Amino acid sequence: MRIRIVDAFTDRPFAGNPAGVLLLDDAFPDDDRLQNIALEVNHAETAFAHRLPEGGEADWALRWFTPVTEVAMCGHATLATAHVLHTTGAHEGPVRFATRSGVLVATPGADGSITLDFPTAPLTRVEIPAGVGKALSAEPVVAYDTGPNVGDLLVELADEQTVLGLTPDHKALGAHSSRGIIATARAEDPSLGYDYVSRCFFPNVGIDEDPVTGSAHTALAPHWSARLGRDDLTGLQASRRSGLVRTGLRGERTLLTGRAVTVIEGELLA
């Protein structure tokens, strides 16, 4: 079985967010095997996909696993999977994935990018939880619950430099949401090519800091579109690897556009 490591939301190797991608010959094996493979790959997510019969609502079934658990939604591993399908010739044109978050569509662009059609996260403003500022190392300005699919607490901070300078207590952050914390601020200089900046910390699924998180941008898009008055924006996720996500708010759906690069291809022997 071929296994690939793909850097997503970047146009160059060793940036963006790496994901393992395995295209299966038939149905998913048992969950323990999927989890063990994801643990061996040891990236934020490993995606497993298999082709579905023609004529249905989706073309491929898709699941995502972190090193410790299965997740309900993952943007970068979906982008990585679509990239593998297109670059290997396994699928042409838009691909429909059957997932725990419904049918998600990935559409290739003429410029080599891929656009994902994901559900928009429903944001609910909440009181800033006691202790989250200390755990994050900066006091939030405002906080939002992002709903069950994303499962994060989104917090806006005072400015971009505050986001960049965070030194969080990852263990303490785990008490404040089911998955983790999205920290964000408005870009100081939009002429640099992005409108807002973010960092994402997901200790409850075994990821202290995720390099670039597509699913988080389904919450960042409605937040910043409302604040900035535009539906189409670009977000910089400012991890050590970093990556850009172009977001397009379309009501109950959010479009996430980025590129991907395959960096490793090998054979799974076990």
Commentary on this structure:
The chain is of the alpha+beta class and 270 residues long. It folds into two domains: 130 residues, Diaminopimelate Epimerase, Chain A, domain 1; 128 residues, Diaminopimelate Epimerase, Chain A, domain 1 (Roll), CATH 3.10.310.10. It has an 18-stranded mixed sheet that branches. β15 and β16 form a beta hairpin. The longest helix is centred in the first third of the chain and has 14 residues.
What is the element layout, followed by pairings?
Blueprint: E1 2-8, E2 17-24, H1 31-41, E3 45-51, E4 60-65, E5 70-71, H2 75-88, E6 95-99, E7 102-108, E8 114-119, E9 124-126, H3 132-136, E10 142-145, E11 152-156, H4 160-164, H5 170-173, E12 180-186, E13 196-202, E14 207-210, H6 217-228, E15 232-237, E16 243-250, E17 253-258, E18 260-267
Parallel strand pairs: 2-3, 4-6, 11-12, 13-15
Antiparallel strand pairs: 1-2, 1-18, 3-4, 4-5, 6-7, 7-8, 8-17, 9-10, 10-11, 12-13, 13-14, 15-16, 16-17
In short:
GO terms for molecular function: isomerase activity. This protein is an alpha+beta fold.
Brief descriptors of the model:
Oxidoreductase, Diaminopimelate Epimerase, Chain A, domain 1, alpha+beta
